[in-house]
Amino acid sequence: MINQTKTQLFEVFKKFDKDGNGYVESNELIEIAKQMNEEINQQDVDRLMKVVDTNGDGKISFEEFWEWWQFGKNEKLEKLVFMKLKLMNMLKSINSEFTRFGVSLEQKYEPKLDHHYWAINYGDFQSHFKFNIRMKYKGSGVQEDIQKEIGFQQSDSLQIVFIFRAIKPSQARQKLEQLWNEYKQYLKEKQDQIILPLIEHSLNVEFQERKDSVAISITVNHPLIEMTLQQAYLPYCQKLGTDMEILVDFLFGIKNGITKLMKKDQIFIKYLLEGFIFEFKAAFNSDLAKKVVGVFLATFGHQFAQKVAAVKQKQRIQQEFIWPMLFKSSKFHLQFKNMEDVNQFLNALGLQELADEQPTARQLIDEMKGDYQLQSIKNPNSEYHFIYKLFLILAEHFIAQGTININIPFAYLNIQFNLEGLKEVFDAVFDQENQKKQK
């Protein structure tokens, strides 16, 4: 992985090394910048050389270039490398293998933002079971982001959008819409006084068929939600200002899919040890803590002033909030080798017997079925029978991949998931396998 990235970076280095002498000199940096219509002056070059030319011989060797690439930071040079990678069609492959200082190369580097990247992964693999959770707040608005993410216009209230990959989107949408109408009719016949008024007066549900998926948009126009946004949320957004930006990204992935988990005698701890990843990325304004504390003190200043003896105390509290934000960027990445033999690994630790005693996934499901009486919702007379019918539609017409978006003004939460093999869990929970055998 690293060797491949190093080879690709060497190709970029050779493009910078115009005379082919194995070094990049200051005049070559100016020339490459001009070719890419980037402004760079002698002062910029001198500052750049001081950072990258570690032995001070007035020129940059590839090893110095590679060392800078791994551990250094210089906005001007980074931008030139980024553009050259893009022109050479190598940006995507390098970006997938190497994240520098929490900044994806495909993202525009913003000097006003602090970037942090922390990750632990066990083995080198593609995740088949995956959750990717992204939260974004932007003081200038996130309308364009939401339009790009989900293809819906942002609502002024709470909006929840589900997008599921479907085998036959047209048929899948019809089945879901039909079930929704049946459920509303059931509530009317039951003369429900709680859920039905909420659906009729506070929810706007829209089903949308797409090329390979079905989207369901739910807009909530409830007085309680609107009051919370107007009185307890939007005033703080105004105080934070239009330049405030926060991006948090969390990824959890497991090498194996659910299909392998559902195999007979598959023990979960062994399933997990074959490969997993935790990844956390964050980017936010350098003065985030200061602004948040300022808004807090301005809002609760009168009551708080009675408890805080003097202005010095307020400053001390500000400092205590701010100190974690002192770091401009951070990176922590712990990567373990591939697990070739889980049993051998557990034996070496003396944990083989303990692992063998752990329940399998199917045993856990059987226990859950008994505790929660899940079989009861299969009864057509059960008030929760529509949930079972929903599971049937999802299992038959959908692939367990998609996104869930929760949107409010200036912010959204995006959850991407890949749960291929979830149908096998459904079959096990509701004994569908036995029913198929009997038929």
Task: List the SSEs and their pairings.
Layout: H1 2-16, H2 26-35, H3 42-52, H4 62-71, H5 75-87, H6 91-97, E1 113-122, E2 129-138, H7 143-150, E3 158-166, H8 169-190, H9 195-202, E4 203-209, E5 213-220, H10 223-240, E6 245-254, H11 258-261, H12 268-273, E7 276-285, H13 288-307, H14 311-322, E8 329-336, H15 342-348, H16 352-356, H17 361-372, H18 385-397, E9 398-408, E10 411-419, H19 422-429, H20 432-438
Parallel strand pairs: 1-8
Antiparallel strand pairs: 1-7, 2-6, 2-10, 3-5, 3-9, 4-5, 6-7, 9-10
InterPro entries: EF_Hand_1_Ca_BS, EF_hand_dom, EF_hand_pair_protein_CML-like
Pfam family, one: EF-hand_7
GO molecular function: calcium ion binding
What does this structure look like?
By secondary structure, the protein is α+β, with helices and mostly antiparallel strands. The protein has 2 domains: 2-98, EF-hand (Recoverin, domain 1); 129-438, no CATH class. 49% of the residues lie in helices and 21% in strands. The chain has helices at 2-16, 26-35, 42-52, 62-71, 75-87, 91-97, 143-150, 169-190, 195-202, 223-240, 258-261, 268-273, 288-307, 311-322, 342-348, 352-356, 361-372, 385-397, 422-429, 432-438; strands spanning 113-122, 129-138, 158-166, 203-209, 213-220, 245-254, 276-285, 329-336, 398-408, 411-419. The chain has a 10-stranded mixed β-sheet with strand order 4-5-3-9-10-2-6-7-1-8. The two termini are 50 Å apart.
